[in-house]
Amino acid sequence: MLSIKDLPKEKYVLPGHSACPGCPESLGLRFVGMALGKDVILVIPAGCSSIIQGVMPSSSLSMRVLNVPFASAAAVAAGISNIRGLLDIKVIPVVWAGDGATADIGFASLSGAAERNDDLIYVCVDNEAYMNTGIQRSSLTPYGAWTTTSVTGKKEGKKELPLIMLIHKVPYIATASIAYPIDFISKLRKAASIKGFKYIHLHAPCPVGWRFDPSKTVEVARLAIEVGAWILFEAEEGRVRINPPSTIYVDKSKRRDVREYLDIQGRFKGLDGREIDVIKKLIDDNWNVLLKLT
Amino acid sequence: MTIKVLTGNYAVAEAVKLSGVNLITAYPITPQTPIVEKLSEYVDLGLIKASFVRVESEFSALAVAYGASICGARSFTATSSHGLLYMHEMLWWVAGSRVPLVMAVVTRAIGPPWNIWDEHTDLLDQRDTGWLISFAEDNQEVLDTIIQLYRITEDPRVYLPGILGLDGFLLSHTSEPVDIPDEHIIKSFLKPRSQPYTLCGDELITMGNLPRARDAMFMRYDIHLSMERAKRVIKEVDLEYSKLVGRSYGGLVECYRCENSKYLLVGMGAWVGNMKDVCDELRDEGYSVGVLKVRFFRPFPYEEVVGHLSGIRGALVFDRSISLGSLGHLHLEILARASSIGKHTIIKGLIAGLAGVDVGVKEIKESTIKFINEIEELGYVKDSSEWLL
Ligand code: SF4
């Protein structure tokens, strides 16, 4: 197993970047650098990570970066991956896209690249809303969450994107969390060793949009797993396996009360009992579906 | 060289085959589809050593071509009408990144109502994107211009993407004898791929993060300057091509019997062939008429147009496109330089052939005679812009 001592000391996200304090995306980008090093070319559609890079001619990311239009990331990365053999190119295309760019506007190009099994890694860094434009709901915003376009709480559930990608029958899909860097880094490295389309869905609590203190980013991410609202799992060639620490929470009695997770965030303020029951049921349903697949 | 009878679409495919492309990607749309089919077949048969990516949309087609090109691949895609509009955002991104890339656009009307027939508005709607835009008159020019465009777009003075427009059905599905140059000649003509930077090398480059406003404006200005420089490159490349292959198109414009003409017909694309026929007939009937074919719409050849239109009595500009609420695109461009052309030249715009309405020798001839007679009798034209409905 990978340990923290094995990780490179290089800085891939440089000090002075333009992310908000407590930003999960800058954390996640650091892990991508640690996992794959200088071989990466990040393909980044519009989102917070477009800003985090800072103002040209400088960049806060010590990696190759190709910024691209909102809906195009998977296709651009596919273009790179498809000429790698012919032009003897060594770089690994890694899409780094938010939930809106992945599940909403870029979904067609994502699905297309997955169906063609283009040889690339797609990371959806999921902060569960359009944060860069000021917290608007996306299809990955969870039920009940306040956003500026769901001021009375979102009425619909979160699109089950990891499962949708699983059903694309790509060689590798995984979920990850910024609270578990070793797990995320191992999954990125595994993805890099597999040929074909790889999808990793990274849960990324955002203090600005979720309304919690910037010092609590990792805590919130961990709580999401401990209440069972986010499940770490991976699927190689369609074989689904729950990953630690989520393995503990297969047993429902081990899960913490969902209210602990909801109460720490301002976006769930004022939910009534019925709404909390809906959230509990959605969590149980997710587990049931996933366990049936294992 | 070999003479083959080819449709415009297959002439595109032959040109791409000769151009040493590394990646081809496209999405089917009428009337462009035979290009994709033929190229897919060529790649499968090993006749083109390229990667062929069968994408799920036109937007992704250009995105895939972009990704490949920015890492050093000579790439190609093709589309029409709604497909081109769906790509629109990517067009800006490709040009703004200064990535050389070549695309064929088989021109077609935009719906609703659904309409597969020819119109130029789809392509001219892209005029502001920073792509070079050219139109072919016949299938030979289709083949030759695709090849020329690879050379032009990869010239360090240009480094911008380019489009060849060919009229839907009129060229795309009409067979004509096409002379196919020898592979080794084209190989020496095109040289290895050249581009300003590649993102897949050893250097850690970032492309496209936030700029300071002045830097971004300067980048726009630089595209503008490159467009200006492209005019010279287009002429040089056409000349060099003619030395190797024996065919020249005059660079930016072609002047057909227009020296010492009192009147000029001005147009782009396939119907220029009809205009030339009309010109011959009218010359036989004693009219002093010539044809000015505008081959490149971007960069727009102001110098040439002003030069040819100054001092003549009248220019009748044919547009198979319309900027709704205003005029035809070519007419607008020419009017933008009306003061340089001078008051003596009466310029009239004719909107014709939209939505695939047939316009042939008969219609062009009648309009021309009416235009000339009006000027000769009245000294002016009653309508400076007219729809040929
Ligand atoms: S809004 Fe959230 S995700 Fe975006 S930069 Fe700020 S903390 Fe990071």
Quick description:
By secondary structure, chain A is of the alpha/beta class. Chain A has eleven helices and eight strands.
Q: Largest interface by residue count?
A: A-B, 46 and 41 residues
Identify low-pLDDT runs of chain A. none
The name of the CATH architecture of the largest domain in chain B is: 3-Layer(aba) Sandwich
Please indicate the count of domains of chain A. 1
Helix content of chain B: 40-55%
Break the fold down into its secondary structure elements and pairings:
The complex is a heterodimer of chains A (294) and B (389).
Chain A: H1 24-36, E1 40-45, H2 48-52, E2 64-68, H3 73-87, E3 92-98, H4 99-104, H5 107-115, E4 120-126, H6 161-167, E5 172-177, H7 181-193, E6 197-203, H8 207-210, H9 217-226, E7 233-236, E8 239-242, H10 258-263, H11 273-293
Parallel strand pairs in A: 1-2, 1-3, 3-4, 4-6, 5-6
Antiparallel strand pairs in A: 5-7, 7-8
Helix pairs in contact in A: 1-7, 3-5
Chain B: E1 2-6, H1 8-18, E2 23-26, H2 33-44, E3 51-54, H3 58-70, E4 75-79, H4 81-96, E5 102-107, H5 121-124, E6 132-135, H6 139-153, E7 162-167, E8 176-180, H7 183-190, E9 206-207, H8 213-245, E10 253-256, E11 263-267, H9 272-284, E12 289-294, E13 296-298, H10 302-309, E14 314-319, H11 329-335, H12 338-341, E15 346-351, H13 361-378, E16 385-387
Parallel strand pairs in B: 2-3, 2-4, 4-5, 5-7, 6-7, 11-12, 11-14, 14-15, 15-16
Antiparallel strand pairs in B: 1-8, 6-13, 10-12
Helix pairs in contact in B: 1-2, 1-6, 3-4, 6-8, 9-13
The complex binds iron/sulfur cluster.
